[in-house]
Amino acid sequence: MQDEYNIVQMNNISKRFGGVKALTDVSLNVKKGEIHALIGENGAGKSTLMKILAGAYKRDEGEIIIDGNEAKSTSPKKMIDMGVSVIYQEFMLASDLTVAENIFIDNMAESGVFVNWKELKRKAKTQLERLGFGHINPEDTVGDLSVAYQQIVEICKCLARNSKVLVFDEPTAVLTFSETEKLLSIIRQLKAEGVSIIYISHRLEELFEICDSITVLKDGGYVDTVATSKINKDQLVSMMVGRDIEQLFPERNAEIGEEILRVENLSTSDMVKEVNFSVRKGEVVGFSGLVGAGRTETMRAIFGADKKSSGKVIYFGEEVNFKSPKDAIRNKFGLVPEDRKKQGLLLEQSIRMNTTLSAMKKVKKLDIINHKKEKAYAKELLASVSTKYGSLEDNANSLSGGNQQKIALAKWLAADCDFIVFDEPTRGVDVGAKTEIYKVINRLAEEGVGVIVIASEMPEIIGLCDRAIVMRHGSVVGEVPKEDLNEDNLIKLAMGV
Does residue 182 register a pLDDT over 90? Predict the structure, then answer.
C-alpha cells in the first residue's frame, strides 16, 4: 500500500495574462502512487496549471511543494530535476532528430562529451519495448513517424527521466483502441511502482477506468476533488459544465435523400487501395479504423490535397477531379482537417481573420471588407460552437487547443458547403463542447448537407452516424448499418478479426 502523503501540493495558485484571470486560488494535491485526474471544459485552466507545475509559466500567487521540498522559483529544468515531467498535448519533439536522440535529448552522453550511439539506441529500444512499441526503429527520424508514434516517443522521453510525477495531457487523443489499452496498462504499472500520475483527458470512460481521484476546474477556479469510486459520469459532467447535459448525442431529424458523393476504386500511390463508398444528402457517414488505416488519406485525395493514382469521384452526378483544395472549396466541398495547427488555422493571425477567412464574400463589398459586419459575423459563428476567447483580435495561438478546434470548425460553417468532411472534429474538446459540435453536424445534415465524420472514438461513430465505413491497411473492409453499430463490430473489422 502506497504512503498517503501528498507528493504534489499546489496551494492557492493564481495566474493572470494581462487583464485576463486564467487561474484564481486553485489548489491541487496528489498522493504518492495515485492516478489523479484533472478535468474541466476547454479554457478551465488545466493546461495553465500544469505549465505552472512544469515551470513553463511563473505563478503570480501560491506555493508549489514537490515531495516535501518547496519550489520557490521554477523553470522547466528545475522542475524536471525535482522529478516532474509533463507530456503536453502538443508534442515537444525535435522532428529532425532520431527517435533515440529525442528520448534521451536531456542526457545524450550521460558523462563526458562523447555519445555512445550503440548504447543510446539500445536504451531507446528498451524504452519503446516497455510501452509495447518495440517495432519502432530508434534510428528513424521523428518527423517521418505518424502522429501516434510521435506521441509514443514523447512518452518514452519522459519515462526515461525516472520522474516521480508524470503529467499526461490528453495522451490517448491520437492513439487507437489497442494502443490506448497498452498505454493505460503502462500507467497502471507506473502507479504500482510508486510513480504519481496527473491525467488530463476529455474521455471520461478512461478516468473511471484508471483514476483514483478527480479534481475539477471551471473558468479558472477550483470546483472540487472527489474519489472516482464515489461519483458517476453524469454527476461529473454537471460539475464540469455547471449544468445537466440531458443527451450527449442529440436527436437528428434529417431526411436522407439522393446520392451526393460516390467514390469508385480510389487509390493513391502509397496508402489508399481501391476504396469504394457513397454518401447521400442529409446523411452522416462515419469512417472508423485504427490509426494508419488510410481514412484521412482517402479524404485528402478526394479533396485535392493529395494526388490520386486511379479511381473516380462522382459529385452531384458528375465526375470531378479536384486538382487542389481551392478547387474543392469552389465546388462547396469542405474538409475540417485532423491537424488544426498545421492545416486548420493560421496561428499567428487573429481569431477574427481565421473565423471569416472562408467567407470573405459575405463581409465585403467591391473588394472592401466591412469590418463591423465581419466582427459581428465572427462573433455569431464562434458563439454557435461555444468558443471561449478574450478579443477577436487576439491571435489564434493564444487559445487552448479545444478552442482552436472550434475556430477551425466555425470557419467551415461559414463556407456554406454542400458536402463536408470532419476529420476528428472533437479531438481535445470537452464534453460540453462535443455536444455543441454534434448539434452543428446534425443541423448541417438536416439542411441537406452530406457529412463524413472520421473519428477514433467508437462511441462517437455509434452515437452520431447513420452508418459506418471501416478501413484497414488502406482498404474498406466493411460497412456497418445503424442497427448493428457497436464497439464489438467496429473493433473486429478494424483489427481484421
Answer: no
pLDDT digits 0-9 by tens, 116-147: 899 899 999 998 988 788 899 999 999 998 87
Domain that holds residue 161: 6-241
Beta bridge partners of 368: 365
CA 89, 93, 98, 100: dihedral to nearest 10 degrees?
A: -70
Give the tens place of pLDDT for each residue, 335-382.
Answer: 998 877 777 788 888 999 888 887 777 778 777 888 888 888 889 888
Non-local CB neighbours of 371 within 8 Å, separated by 6+ positions: none
Nearest to 320, CA basis, from 333, 306, 337: 333
Q: Considering its fold, how many domains does the chain have in total?
A: 2
Q: Are residues 102 and 26 in the same domain?
A: yes
Q: The C-alpha cell of 328 is what?
A: 474543392
User: Helix count (H) and strand count (E) of the chain?
Assistant: 17, 22
Same domain for 166 and 66, yes or no, is yes
Query: At CA 198, angle to CA 201 and CA 243, rounded to 5?
Result: 45
CB atoms within 10 A of CB 373: 14
Amino acid at site 207? L
pTM of the predicted model as reported, rounded to 2 decimal places: 0.66
What percent of the chain clears pLDDT 90, i.e. is strictly above it? 48
- Encode 100-142 in three state secondary structure: HHHHCCCCCCCCCCCCCHHHHHHHHHHHHHHCCCCCCCCCCEH
Q: Residue 347 sits in a domain of what CATH number? A: 3.40.50.300
Q: Is 434 domain-assigned?
A: yes
250 lies in a domain? no
